[in-house]
Design goal:
heterodimer, A: 395 residues, alpha/beta, 8-stranded parallel β-sheet, 7 helices, 39 strands, 18% helix, B: 611 residues, Glutamine Phosphoribosylpyrophosphate, subunit 1, domain 1, Rossmann fold, 3 domains, 8-stranded antiparallel β-sheet, 7-stranded antiparallel β-sheet, glutamine-fructose-6-phosphate transaminase (isomerizing) activity (chain B)
């Protein structure tokens, strides 16, 4: 796809991300890494692949984010702008301040969608001839999302109660007239939408969609991003024992070392300069970030192991997140299914902090240390810098 | 729906004759309709029109579109909704002098009064269409001495309704006038050649620079110029130009990733159109015929057969008529049992399904009368039938039938109700209450889609990992289950089998093991308690039970179901029309989750024309 001019991208990355707090004491949410790349890389990459040449990123920490994005994109003008105010209204208000004319694609930094969703939205927008397009997706539980309500007019509401319907994917494509209206109403999107009654285009996305607002959403994001892995890619600078087994679609980055007898069962991502010890098993939907270390005989499944994190010998990490630079000592077990009586499935999931999830182990903040032979119950959160003494039982 | 295209070009700018370019563009618009086709080209001071009934490929070969030369041309592909497809009714339409030609998509609601007025002034009409009045109206203003653009604007100001037009006037051989109100219209800007069409894919092969027109805009294109106006004020063209490149196919889905999803979402509208388009007289004739028949056979194939089974259930159970639903290719079984006292209802979306056509011919030969239910006006089966009832679902592109099924059910239900009240099997109150629910169906269905789509999408993740499924129901829930299972089979490639729930323990249950998906259609009828037993049987074998349940029975079933889809309490006679929609969504989302393209299921074709 190539849209040669006039289409500008805006990525909103200025939310506080309060719900992610256990993982974000040292770095902002858009910089959390999945499959070796920061969260903000994914929406940016989608916009670049649509052919956009000019993208504005609104965030709380423009210098850091600019630095990080600069590593991945060349020949694209990426302007980093500091956000004034925390709420979505102030973010939307800023769009007009910084771009103000022509077609603009707005996207959230923490929503991960496949590229086809962006293509669908843009095609639908151009074809409709309407000044605004909202991309929405059906969800069984709208709690915590923005709901798109279509009656006589279209509105976008924050949903607190349990309800099924269509969630806003965060993608909005607007023409100048809508941006001006948004400015007039101080960023209040519903007031602006009211002015365009009957002239709003909605597109429906039926594929996958992840809004990363809670730590465990990162695990869903890994799962979906892995769908696109159709083949195994192993860096020539990786060192893999001839007696290790690599099956399914797996990416092994440069400098990774996979020791004798280890098993990598894809889809999985093995980051730069990581180490997987003897007879360790890395199962599906796992992402080992840069310089992480997995000890011998450990088993990791459906988990995110952060930058420079260590998982000790013989540990089991399932459906869990181990924060950057944390250490899990040998023999630690995370339980990822509620012990008894509670059925876990996609339709009757575990409810953690009022939010539904299918399966969940532990969320360990950065720079924490979990003592040897500790057992961690499902859904436990371990704060950053925390030291858990050996043989603990965390409920 | 119709597709329109207009092209104006500098001399020798196109590499091929303009007729061939128009034909190619029309082929891209074929999804918008395909029952008659026509083109018009300005030749010096007259306009040459070639048009006829049939598919683009047939008509363009017969009338040699590819050889037509010129610099300015218009083309049209029609999908008849009112006024049958015929050579006369095909577009373009011309005025009395043959110097104005017009193509149109939409409806002019005040055409009857305009037509009367113009006839009084001596205009002679050649077709039954609403479109032709516009040509005569422009002619009238030209006669008064208006310049062409002014005549066009004056004519526009008289029109009411939804429309997109393209008009050529022979005095200005390098100009095409256009106007948009509600119906879509797009301008394509090329190098020395400009286009105006219903949709971007039409001209995408030639240019990717477009302007999408908005409601109320009108103007003209010349080979090197585009002029647009709204309420007399010129529009800034530069600001509106967009450059695009995508596969032509994507554009026609109007914001849906697949045609199937678009068509599922279109069902409220399709049902509304079908209800609005009911021809009272034809229905009365059909009801009369049914009531005077010894036996009724309903023939159909695939989804149409399932619609036939629902019809069979209604006619037999509600009315007590001797009815049999027959798979088209198995009609021979009944040939000897049919005579001239019998009636055949033939159901076919396309009206061209060869198995059904063969059955119709054979049964007609035995003397049976034939009633066709079809979505394509004047197609083969309707032509060979004594009576025709049309569903007005619009063209269906997705191979898996969705909106044609629900509209076929609407027709069958109304037939049953009308026959019921004449026979005295339904009292006036019951009739009125069901008719009332039918009329509220479009709104209700919209609501159900919104409420269930997210839950169904979540459920599809489970289904997508399974190899088999059962669909169980009782009564009218049996054909409903068969259709639900067919959808899952044909697009998600999961082996799905429908059974009467009571029969499930006589064999099929042997296959059930832990996690085996069993989909129950629970309706608000007298089968609820036996079904409860069947759900328990499956639950006891650790099946993954999924229930489509009316609100009032949620409490009764909730504990036994792994997944509950709550539906409103509706009369069981119209429930299949509602219940099938989340089942279609389930098949769709399961196919998407498995990575298949639901629009192009392997080994299947939309219309099967071989026996």
């Amino acid at each position: 796809m190539a849209y040669s001019r006039e289409i500008i991208g805006v990525i909103l990355g200025g939310g506080r991300g309060t719900n992610m707090e256990p993982l974000t004491p040292y770095l902002d949410k858009p910089l959390i890494k999945l499959l070796g790349k920061p969260l903000i890389y994914y929406p940016t990459d989608n916009l670049v692949r649509l052919g956009l040449k000019s993208i504005y990123v609104i965030s709380r920490n423009p210098a850091k984010i600019g630095n990080e994005l600069g590593r991945y994109f060349n020949n694209i003008s990426i302007e980093n702008v500091g956000q004034k105010g925390d709420d979505i209204d102030s973010a939307l208000r800023m769009i007009n301040e910084i771009v103000g004319k022509g077609t603009t694609i707005v996207s959230f930094s923490d929503v991960i969608l496949p590229r086809e969703a962006y293509e669908l939205a843009l095609n639908s927008h151009v074809n409709s001839g309407k000044p605004i397009t909202i991309l929405m997706t059906p969800l069984s539980d709208l709690q915590g999302y923005f709901e798109v309500e279509i009656n006589d007019t279209v509105s976008i509401n924050k949903i607190v109660e349990h309800k099924s319907g269509y969630a806003w994917t965060g993608i909005l494509i607007t023409e100048k007239e809508f941006l001006i209206s948004l400015q007039e109403f101080n960023g209040n999107i519903n007031e602006a939408l009211k002015q365009f009654k009957g002239n709003i285009n909605t597109a429906l996305w039926s594929g996958w969609f992840v809004d990363v607002s809670y730590p465990w959403d990162l695990l869903s994001a890994i799962k979906y991003l892995m769908i696109d892995l159709k083949e195994t890619r192993i860096s020539k600078d990786a060192d893999i024992s001839p007696r290790a087994v690599v099956e399914g679609s797996v990416i092994i980055d440069e400098g990774a070392r996979i020791d004798h007898g280890a098993i990598i069962r894809g889809p999985a991502y093995i980051g730069k300069n990581t180490y997987v010890g003897n007879n360790a098993i890395i199962r599906n939907n796992t992402s080992l970030e840069e310089e992480s270390v997995i000890g011998a005989d450990a088993e990791i499944t459906e988990s995110l192991i952060g930058y420079r994190a260590t998982v000790g010998r013989g540990s089991f990490i399932g459906s869990s997140i181990i924060g950057d630079e944390s250490t899990v000592e040998p023999g630690v077990v995370t339980l990822n299914v509620l012990p008894s009586g509670v059925e876990v499935s996609h339709l009757s999931p575990v409810i953690v902090k009022g939010k539904q999830i299918a399966k969940l182990g532990a969320i360990v903040g950065p720079k924490a240390r979990i003592g040897a032979n500790t057992v961690i119950y499902p859904g436990s959160i371990i704060e950053h810098n925390k030291y858990v003494s050996p043989l603990s039982i965390l409920k | 729906m119709c597709g329109i295209i207009g092209i104006t070009s500098l001399p020798n700018n196109l590499r091929e004759p303009i007729g061939k370019v128009v034909r190619k563009c029309l082929e891209r618009l074929e999804y918008r309709g395909y029952d008659s086709v026509g083109i018009a080209v300005i030749k010096g001071n007259y306009i040459e029109v070639r048009k006829g009934k049939g598919k683009i490929i047939e008509v363009s070969t017969r009338l040699n579109f590819d050889e037509v030369d010129g610099t300015t041309a218009i083309g049209h592909t029609r999908w008849a909704t009112h006024g049958k497809p015929s050579d006369e009714n095909a577009h373009p339409h011309t005025d009395c002098t043959g110097s104005v030609a017009i193509i149109h998509n939409g409806i002019i609601s005040n055409f009857l009064e305009l037509k009367e007025e113009l006839i009084k002034k001596g205009h002679v009409f050649k077709s039954e269409t609403d479109t032709e009045v516009v040509a005569h109206l422009i002619e009238e203003y030209l006669k008064l001495g208006y310049r062409p653009f002014d005549a066009f604007k004056a004519a526009l100001s008289r029109l009411k309704g939804a429309y997109a037009f393209v008009v050529t006037i022979s005095q200005e051989p390098n100009r095409l006038y256009f106007a948009r109100n509600t119906s879509p219209l797009v301008i394509g800007i090329g190098n020395g050649t400009n286009f105006v069409a219903s949709d971007i894919p039409a001209f995408l092969e030639f240019t990717n620079t477009v302007i999408v027109l908005r409601d109320g805009e009108y103007g003209y294109i010349e080979p090197n110029k585009v002029y647009i106006e709204k309420d007399g004020v010129p529009v800034n063209i530069e600001e509106r130009i967009r450059l695009i490149s995508w596969t032509p196919e994507m554009a026609s889905k109007e914001g849906y990733p697949h045609f199937m999803l678009k068509e599922i979402h279109e069902q409220p509208f399709a049902i509304g159109s079908t209800l609005a388009g009911i021809n009272e007289k034809e229905f009365d004739n059909v009801v009369n015929l049914l009531l005077n028949s010894r036996k009724i056979l309903i023939v159909g194939a695939g989804t149409s057969y399932h619609a036939g089974l629902v019809g069979d259930y209604l006619l037999t159970t509600v009315l007590g008529l001797d009815t049999h639903a027959v798979i088209s290719s198995e009609y021979k079984r009944y040939v000897n049992a049919v005579n001239d006292n019998d009636t055949v209802i033939a159901i076919s979306q396309s009206g061209e399904t060869i198995d059904t056509l063969v059955a119709v011919r054979a049964l007609k030969e035995r003397g049976a009368k034939v009633i066709a239910i079809s979505n394509v006006i004047d197609s083969a089966i309707p032509r060979e039938s004594n009576y025709v009832l049309y569903t007005r679902a619009g063209p269906e592109i997705g191979v898996a039938a969705t909106k044609t099924f629900t509209t076929q059910l609407v027709i069958m239900t109304i037939l049953t109700l009308r026959a019921g009240i004449i026979m005295g099997k339904l009292d006036a109150n019951e009739y009125r209450s069901i008719m009332d629910s039918l009329n509220k169906l479009p709104g209700l269905l919209q609501n159900i889609i919104t409420r269930t789509e997210g839950r169904v999408k979540a459920l599809s993740e489970y289904m997508s990992r399974r190899q088999n499924a059962y669909y169980l129901g009782r009564g009218i829930g049996v054909p409903l289950s068969m259709e639900g299972a067919l959808k899952l089979k044909e697009i998600a490639y999961i082996h799905a089998e429908a059974y009467p729930a009571g029969e499930s323990k006589h064999g099929p249950i042997a296959l059930v093991e832990e996690g085996y998906p069993v989909v129950f259609s629970i309706l608000d009828d007298d089968n609820v308690d036996p079904l409860l037993g069947n759900v328990m049987e499956m639950k006891a074998r650790d099946a993954y039970t999924i229930g489509f349940v009316p609100e009032k029975y949620i409490g009764k079933f909730k504990e036994l179901l792994n997944a509950v889809l709550e539906l409103p309490n509706v009369d069981y006679r119209i429930a299949p029309i509602i219940y099938i929609v989340p089942m279609q969504l389930l098949a769709y989302y399961t196919a998407v989750a498995r990575g298949y393209d639901p629009d192009k299921p392997r080994n299947l074709a939309k219309t099967v024309t071989v026996e």
